[in-house]
Amino acid sequence: MEQLVETLSIDLEQERKDILKKYRRLLRTAKPFLKDNDAKLIKKAFYTSVEAHKDMRRRSGEPYIYHPLAVAQIVVEEIGLGTTGIVSALLHDVVEDTDMRIEDIDRLFGKKVAKIIDGLTKISGRFEYGTSQQAENFRKMLLTLSDDVRVILVKLADRLHNMRTLDSMPRDKQLKIASETIFIYAPLAHRLGLYSIKSELEELYLKYTEPQEYRAISRKLRETKSSRDRFISKFTEPIAEDLEKAGLNYIIKGRPKSIYSIWNKMRKQNKPFEEIYDLFAIRIVLESPQEGDREKALCWQAYSIVTDHYKPNPDRLKDFLSTPRANGYQSLHSTVMSKSGQWVEVQIRTSRMDEIAEKGYAAHWKYKGNDTKVRGNIEQWISQVRETLETGSGDKTAAIEFLDEFRTNLFNEEVFVFTPKGELKVLQSGATALDFAFDIHSEVGVHCMAAKVGGVLVPISYVLSNGDQIEIITSNKQKPTEDWLRVVRTSKARARIKDFLKEDNRHYETDGRQMVERKLKVLGIELTAEVVNQLRAFFECKTAADFFYKIGKGYVQLDELKRFKRDKEAKERKAVTAVIVPPVEGADGKSYTKLLKNLHGDRADSDTLLIGDDMDKIDYKLAPCCNPIAGDDVFGFVTINEGIKIHRTTCPNAAELMSKHGNRIIKAKWESNKDEAFLAGLYISGTDRVGLINDVTRIISNELHINMRGLTIDTKDGVFNGDIRLYVQDTRHLDILISKLEQVEGVYNVQRFDTNLTGSV
Ligand code: MN
Q1: Mean local confidence (pLDDT), 153-161
Q2: How far is the CA of 157 from the centre of ligand 1 (A)?
Q3: Where in the numbering of this chain does the TGS domain appear (predicted)?
């Protein structure tokens, strides 16, 4: 993101002073947390980073070290991390941007720091193209949660500083970084409970993407400030008086809502600024001498004082005191009616809760001695995320799908329910009894029949309400169906059901294949690869597997194979006829063999379609039945509605097309200098070993720089079978890849396949 800039006239002495000043400020902030050797370690990290980045400058022209220093400052001051976090922040760009290697970090700072830096380097924005890469990156980032949550926290600090210094970036980069921030980082900060960081990221996002609206809203906020302040002080006056009388230590703030949330509201409700009423919330922060039940009592006492003066809306009372949000947030929220007839949100919490709400996760560690429950929640969340991630496959579309689901989960509020033994489970709001069953255990999930809520029998689609106590009823005969996917809300349950259905389908597929094989034998047909393809086409299935599945399931009756036989025989008779007798209706009267011979001619004469070259002028498409790529032997087929389709001469449909519609065939050749990528598929098989998939993907993306679209690998009893879909330039390119892959230890067969490239994996 940053780059080297030629230095013109820079006061190096002044810069050196500035760097030291920033460093001393960092040490001062960190001081209360430091023990034993901590200061020494930070100093070492600081000098290592200074040395490593010494010749680098940020795009703004500043010395590069300003950036790691600022990130470290955020890490300690705004997130509250200790020495390991500070050291990691100081070194976070060293491996990616300088000559230092991860081994050097390990040697100098130990395993823990090295692991964090490694995680940070891996998730850094190396891939710039397309959302799928971003999604995959994000998935990688969350995977590192399993190692150390500090990776994410330092990454957030890094992103925050980059957003704060976005001014020096060109416009396109600003937009890219800002949208990534709103899409991924702000929700993540929210989920980790880093409220103020989340708000700042959102604010900066708006500032760079909608600068005019941002300025307009902030101007209007300023203009209305004094009347708002008058309202707030009038509203809080009687409350403050009574809090005083009750002898409570408190602070009352009228907190304006963020510009981003106001903008969001205006957009969602399609209203001008003037009609948005809840521009602020009242927050009462109470000083509590000790932690625990006393805190809760204090908050309720304050609540009772507020409602002595203002009538509360019973539907809007939220008690996050007794059941904190999964990110640890605790507070009492209520909406009350002011004297002037306006609803006002009031939040009541203690100063400890307030700090947790602002600093989130990191603040928990400060209080960790007494707050195992909150910490437990965070750990529960992290393990949930990990589980979801581990069930996802490595393929790109899966990464995007995952990201969507993850984001949905981020924004949903939770529902709190209980097991029969009284154990609390937190699920996303809208979750059903079936989700609950899967949350308990996959085995309970897949055999779930119904549930009992408070002793009453309910179906699996029952939507959970807060406080429900649920007993799951299971049966060994029960198993998931496609319909279940519509019943569940959580990504965990969905992933498990999908896994199960996949397994289940495979079994129908093998059954189907055996049934077909037996039946065809009776009919005197052998099940060769060619016949499989003919069957697929005849029964209009996307893949052969699909066809066998339909047979196995009984969607296609075995008896229909007789019809297939008749059709096949008729076609074979026709094909033979076509070769011998020129078709009468064929305008040019060419026979199939002549046609084919002609197509193979090397000369590109005037009536040859040049693929690539003629692209802009002529409407042609690559046929999905054989997916030609540049370099393949091909011909064009003039269709009735879809322009010209390019087929390979080896296409399973080629014979039929040429023999039936010889007059619609045209010659086609590839124009070689076009820079285009073609989707191709490879089957790969061999014996399984650790690291094999890594080796395969390394060749594809690192060595040959080929973009993968999808990868599925199935391993069974030490043998693996995979299919890879990727974009290649031409057949030569594909041949190089195939021969490279064949050299990988364990791989014994790599083969191109043609059909169903665009279908789901
Ligand atoms: Mn950075």
Answers
A1: 92
A2: 9
A3: 412-474
Instruction: Give me the catalytic one of 15, 18, 77, 96.
Output: 96
CATH homologous superfamily of 215-359: Beta Polymerase, domain 2 (3.30.460.10)
Reply yes or no on domain 384-498 having CATH 3.40.50.300. no
Cα-based angle 243, 245, 251 (whole degrees, multiple of 5): 30
* Closest of 130, 163, 133, 165 to residue 60, by C-alpha: 165
List all residues 6 or more positions away from 193 whose beta carbon is below 8 Å from its beta carbon: 325, 327, 328, 329, 356, 357, 359, 360, 361
97 catalytic, yes or no? Answer: yes
Tens digit of pLDDT for each residue in 466-518? 778 889 988 888 889 888 988 998 888 988 898 888 888 888 888 899 999 99
Closest CA to 468 of 419, 502, 428, 429: 419
Q: Please write down the long-range contacts of 130-138, taking CB distance under 8 Å and 24 or more positions apart.
A: 131/400, 132/396, 132/397, 132/399, 132/400, 133/396, 134/180, 134/183, 134/184, 135/396, 135/399, 135/400, 135/402, 135/403, 136/396, 136/399, 138/184, 138/399, 138/403
**85 Cα–ligand 1 center, Å:** 14
Angle between helices 544-553 and 529-538 (to 10 degrees): 70
Does the structure show a pLDDT above 80 at 290?
A: no
Beta-carbon contacts of 288 under 8 Å, excluding residues fewer than 6 positions away, are 294, 295, 298, 350, 351, 352
Statement: residue 130 has pLDDT above 80 = no
Domain 12-194 class in CATH: mainly alpha
From the candidates 18, 97, 401, 414, give the one annotated as an active-site residue.
97
At residue 91 the predicted structure's pLDDT band, cuts being 50, 70 and 90, is: very high
State in Å: Cα 155 to ligand 1 middle. 8
- Residue 650 Cα, ligand 1 centroid: separation in angstroms? 52
104 is catalytic: no
Cα of 108 to ligand 1 centre, how many Å?
20
**Cα separation of 279 and 65, whole Å?**
40
**Whole-number mean pLDDT of the chain?**
79
Q: Which residues have C-beta under 5 Å from ligand 1, the single-atom ion? A: 93, 158
Strands (E), 454-509: 456-458, 470-474
The SS3 call for residue 590 is coil
What is the distance in A from the centroid of ligand 1 to the CA of 378? Answer: 26
Cα 3 to middle of ligand 1, angstroms: 12
Q: Which CATH number applies to 678-753?
A: 3.30.70.260
How far is Cα 191 from Cα 327, in angstroms, rounded to an integer?
6
Contact 684, 724 (CB under 8 A): yes
Please say if the pLDDT value at position 353 is more than 50.
yes
Where do the structural domains in the chain lie, given as residue ranges?
12-194, 215-359, 384-498, 499-577, 589-670, 678-753
Phi, psi angle pair for 337, to nearest 5°: -90, 125
> How far is it, in rounded angstroms, from Cα 712 to Cα 724?
7
Residues in the chain, overall count:
761
The pLDDT tens digits for 23-43 are 999 999 888 878 888 999 999
Q: How far is ligand 1, taken at its centre, from the CA of residue 177, in Å? A: 13
